[in-house]
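Worked example 3. Consider a protein that binds coenzyme A.
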Amino acid sequence: MSALASAPASLSDGPFAPLPTPDPAPAHAFALRLGDGLALRLRERHHVDALADLLAAEHEHLAPSFGWAQRPGRAEAERQVGQGLERFANGGGWHADLCEDGRVVGAMWLHDLQRRGGSTEVGYWVRRDAEGRGLVTRAMRVLHRHFFEGRGLGRVCVAVEPGHARSEAVARRLGYTPEAVLRGSHVNASGRTVDLAFYGLLREDWDGPGADAGPLPLPRFALRVDDDLQLGLLEREDAEALHALVDRNRAHLRPWMPWAGEQDLAATRAFLEGRALPALARGEGVDGGIWWRGRLVGAAGLHSWSERPRRGSVGYWLSADAQRHGIATRVTRALLAKAFDDLGAERVDLRAAVGNAPSRAVADRLEMRFEGVLRRELPVQEGYADMAVYALSAAEWRARVG
Ligand SMILES: CC(C)(COP(=O)(O)OP(=O)(O)OC[C@H]1O[C@@H](n2cnc3c(N)ncnc32)[C@H](O)[C@@H]1OP(=O)(O)O)[C@@H](O)C(=O)NCCC(=O)NCCS
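Given these inputs, the predicted complex is written out as structure tokens:
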């Protein structure tokens, strides 16, 4: 049967039905899900205005503690979002919104994130109306699993200015050891040079996840597609796993993705560090690994994002043994939702070689409009192939999802 003749699934059926488990992260977020109604949403470029509003609303609450909170406004929000994305891209940390049941209630960030066996420093604040409920302590308990089990870190620390009773109480409640007071090492919110106290927890002193802890949440920022399918943002440390997957699937991928023929570990690193992560930091696209039932089975992304007109292209590949489960269709559907409903896309397209029936079938299942064939446009193993282009406009997307 020709792929183009396969019956398109309705967007309201089966894999497109609402999630059985509510998501603690806001819709379309790349989030670390902490369980118990909590999630950390990676701050992306388009969150700047919302963050500026939040910092303005919490100005009086935050200004006594943080120098940056003295000057709320769009420029400060832009600086924080940009710094967080740069850190994420360089593998040195991240900035995230702390969310409870989909609502932003504060922020957490990592400095100086090191590799396995190393250390990281965590910072945090919660809105005034969210204080006194143990949110940061709860979030930190799950993050310990993320740091120690998921990333293999050896130590986590927090830095506290003298007199910050609430912040210090978090460290003590979590069983952190007072390590050192660095005299005169920090300029506080009032511009005075003050001491900074460091509290740390070593992996060997951590008392583990607790008997009633469920499975380890996916230790990465991910777009949840459904309960067993997530698109996790790729990081530098994924190079080896990604390369191994390509290596096992060369024969399957090579006909339509010629890069897969020669992709060695260095080229995988160059892709992550030189293309995918800088594009994320600049707001020009996202590249995710597809985790299905806890296993990395492919990659997908929204590429070539432009602001005028607001548009991008979806792309994907799966390992041979993960095909025919609807994974590519469901992940692409989630990326379309992110593009239209979160990023305000005017148009999203999908491009596939004319002869690539499984890929064209994904576009058909999602009822994307076939726009024609650009001839000799796509590099493939055997030279250049004619390329079929499918697209949805924002109006067509709205008509399909109601
Ligand atoms: C293109 C590619 C990702 C398509 O993979 P796929 O498994 O056919 O696509 P999906 O994951 O959407 O799965 C659809 C299949 O699963 C079935 N399926 C099972 N459960 C499903 C569900 N819940 N929803 C939708 N389809 C489902 C469909 O019926 C279909 O099977 P069929 O072909 O026998 O009818 C894959 O073939 C591939 O990686 N190819 C090599 C790389 C490549 O070409 N990438 C694209 C470049 S443009």
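Take a moment to read the result before moving on. Residues 265-282 form the longest helix (18 residues). Residues 6, 9, 14-15, 252-253, 256-257, 316-318, 323-329, 352, 356, 358-359, 361-362, 365 surround coenzyme A (CB under 6 Å).
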